[in-house]
Amino acid sequence: MTFESRRAAFNAQLREIREAAGLSGTELANLLGWHQTKVSKIENGRQTPTDSDVVEWLHACDASESVVEQLRAGLRAVQVAQLTWRRQIREGHRKRQEQGARDARSATVIRGVEFMAVPGLLQTPDYARTIFHTQADLLGVPTSDIEDAVAARMARQQVLYDRSKTIEILFAESALLHPLCTSEALLAQLDRLDSVLRLPNVRIGILAARRRVPHLLPHGFWVFDNEVRFETVTGEQRTVDVDEVALYNKLADRLWTAAVERDEARELIARIAAGLHG
Q: Is residue 98 very low, low, confident or very high in pLDDT (cuts 50, 70, 90)?
């Protein structure tokens, strides 16, 4: 069981106890002096409660001391899973990329939205290699498995040719204007994008610079069927909450209304490439 699923299961227990006590989320938050969104974030698996959070929550719900101790032990198991997940990140990139490849193969619908990087499914080996090295430097991750991670990311791209899948990938021009890689690597990446834009079964869009967007995007995200994932500086968060997944899909739909596609997207890429050549 992953850290995210352990946390979701644990937080569901807290929700059930609140409901059994006859309290709404707002009522519980008021009793504890919390902002209501804190209760919502915990119950929807977006925030790991602290030990004191759990104790206060259960006491407000008049839970017995045996239940309090049981849930505190459950929280410790979640915290151990979180530490294990962080340790996995520190061990390198390969395992995460291989899991990502498996997830992509099993998904029917894949929707990606990125602002500051070319999405992984569209990256060249050199571009991906640069991304992995910069992440390793920031997070203190070993670099010994980066070549394996690059290979796993390239293998993951085979889903682009699977006509049974619905794949929509949207990214901002800023990903091409603020590259981490060299000009030579970026030119190769632009050529790769021009090729992928010709695939008939993959929808690719670019949010052009200086074009008005319908909503601000606090972070990139990916939708795999009924699950949303997004990366923070230190790792990855996931949610399967129906309302949240629907909201992310709604945001993606709105952003697509501002995107350029096909010939317009290729023209945009050609202009950036011409600037690099010049």
A: confident
Closest by CA to 100, choosing from 227, 261, 232, is: 227
The fold for domain 94-277 equals: Endonuclease; Chain A (3.30.870)
- In contact, 204 and 263? CB cutoff 8 Å: no
Q: Is 60 helix (H, G, I), strand (E, B) or coil?
A: helix
- Alpha carbons 30 and 56: distance in angstroms, whole number: 12
Q: Alpha-carbon distance 47 to 39, whole Å?
A: 9
The C-alpha atoms of residue 214 and residue 87 are separated, in whole angstroms, by: 38
How much is the pTM?
A: 0.72
Domain 3-90 has CATH 1.10.260.40: yes
Spatial contact of 278 and 270, defined as CB atoms under 8 Å apart = no
How many other CB atoms sit within 10 Å of the CB of residue 22?
A: 9
Distance from C-alpha of 28 to C-alpha of 36, rounded to nearest angstrom: 8
Of 61, 155, 96, nearest to 53 by C-alpha is 61
More confident residue, 75 or 6: 75
| CA separation for the pair 166, 194 (Å, rounded) | 20
Residue 255 to residue 206: CA distance in whole angstroms = 10
pLDDT in tens, 199-218: 999 999 999 998 999 998 88
The predicted-structure confidence for 72-96, as pLDDT tens digits, reads as follows: 988 887 876 665 555 656 666 777 7
Domains in the chain: boundaries: 3-90, 94-277
Res 131: pLDDT = 92
For β-strands 166-172 and 202-207, DSSP reports them as: parallel
